[in-house]
Specification:
This protein is of the alpha/beta class. Helices cover 35% and strands 23% of the residues. It has two domains: 4-125, Rossmann fold, CATH 3.40.50.720; 127-299 and 329-345, Dihydrodipicolinate Reductase, domain 2 (2-Layer Sandwich), CATH 3.30.360.10. It has helices at residues 13-23, 38-47, 58-62, 78-87, 102-115, 129-139, 166-169, 173-189, 294-297, 300-313, 321-340; strands at 4-9, 28-34, 68-71, 91-95, 119-122, 146-154, 193-201, 218-225, 230-236, 244-251, 254-258, 268-270, 286-288, 344-345. The protein is globular, with a radius of gyration of 20 Å. The structure holds nicotinamide-adenine-dinucleotide. The site of nicotinamide-adenine-dinucleotide has 24 residues, from helix 1. GO terms for molecular function: nucleotide binding.
Length: 346
């Protein structure tokens, strides 16, 4: 079997999921990891039995014999690194957001077109079992005409300083969390957005060891779909209690709700606490909702398997760079609405 050779750029939170996912696929070999944080990269390589030493300069990784790279680094570097990877003849898997701005995203897409390489857009939730089941129920007409929906994602705030600085991230809870909800709601409703309204706020500007948060940490938005559905999104970086994502879809013949972090198949009570329940949970004492097989629950191995199949067979990806760009355009419009305080048309 010909192996697909993959390099990982970054060794932080999401790079771990990428390594975990690639390791499930027999036809993939992880050839190297590039990261500025050498000790972190060494730990990751040890965890997943990846040979060699971390490579500090990503350009050196790109000189290796690789088919594709996973871009798992801060948002301000997505454009530069994706373009370098495409120019060196690699396919790229880019973590959300595609880039900080639509302009940056367009440069990535046009480079991929010129080079004849794929850009895969990492929107893991579209590959998550609970949301796939929701989609099936909707597609089979189980809900009748959909007129209302809600997407909500929250946790207590990101784990690295760069997220809190607009220059590095491009924005706060909207571009970080809202971007998941927008992508999933468009996919679930199989319709296009015609206009948006959005309000953003920063209620916890002092982030201690991470410095000042100069982006929004809370978001309320409305997506008006072409078919008439009114859809709300709510995002928060100031919600203790661990990571949580929720979708509710309402139709004239039914409703479907998915809450994979609160409606888990296990509920635990512990007076002593135990190791780990879910991402960003503050503790495990008392009643908790542990999420089993978190990577699978949130679709990471399924997403990577799909991308590798696309490389192997040439089939079109379910979430490609153009899809990522479409979602980024809506995010940008929502930021425009947050400034104008008006409904903005796409
Ligand atoms: N799909 C999801 O749900 C999800 C979750 C978290 C993060 N993300 C996305 O993944 C990306 C990375 O986020 P993270 O949480 O892993 O960040 P992180 O802070 O945990 O890790 C960032 C990594 O980037 C590396 N890095 C920075 N500059 C580099 C350079 N020039 N060359 C090589 N490595 C460099 C650092 O060494 C570090 O390992 C972001 O775009 C983020 O939006 C997606």
């Amino acid at each position: 079997m010909k192996k697909i050779k993959v390099g990982i750029i970054g060794s932080g939170f999401i790079a771990d999921y990428h390594c975990f996912a690639y390791k499930q696929i027999p036809s993939v070999e992880i050839v190297g990891i590039s990261s500025l944080l050498v000790e972190q990269a060494k730990d990751l390589m040890k965890k997943y039995d990846i040979l060699g030493e971390p490579i500090e300069n990503y350009n050196d990784l790109l000189k290796m014999d690789l088919d594709a790279v996973s871009i798992c680094i801060p948002n301000n570097l997505h454009k530069e690194v994706a373009i370098a990877a495409l120019n060196s003849g690699k396919h790229v898997m880019i973590e959300k957001p595609l880039a900080r701005t639509v302009k940056e995203g367009e440069e990535i897409i046009s480079t991929a077109k010129n080079r004849g390489k794929y850009v895969f857009y990492c929107e893991n939730n579209i590959y998550a079992p609970a949301f796939k089941k929701m989609k099936q129920i909707i597609k089979e007409g189980g809900l009748g005409k959909i007129y209302k929906a809600r997407g909500k994602e929250q946790h207590s705030g990101p784990h690295s300083a760069w997220f809190y600085k607009k220059e590095n991230s491009g924005g706060g809870a909207l571009i970080d969390l809202g971007i998941h909800d927008i992508a999933c709601l468009i996919w679930l409703l199989e319709d296009e957005i015609k206009s948006v309204f959005c309000q953003i706020t920063t209620i916890q500007p002092d982030r201690g060891e991470f410095g000042i948060c100069d982006v929004e940490d809370n978001v309320m938005g409305i997506l008006y779909f072409k078919n008439g559905a009114q859809v709300s999104i709510e995002e928060s970086w100031t919600a203790p209690g661990g990571y949580s994502i929720l979708f509710e879809i309402y139709g004239t013949k039914g409703q479907v709700i998915a809450d994979p972090c609160r409606m888990t198949p296990i509920v635990a009570y512990s007076e002593k606490g135990y190791g780990y329940s879910v991402e960003k949970a503050g503790g495990t004492i008392g009643w908790t909702y542990p999420v089993p097989d978190e990577a699978w629950t949130f679709g990471y191995p399924q997403e990577m398997k799909h991308f590798i199949e696309c490389i192997e067979t040439g089939k079109k990806a379910q979430t490609d760079g153009r899809f990522g760009l479409k979602i980024l355009k809506i995010v940008e419009l929502m930021y425009k609405s947050a400034i104008s305080n008006k409904i903005e048309e796409l």
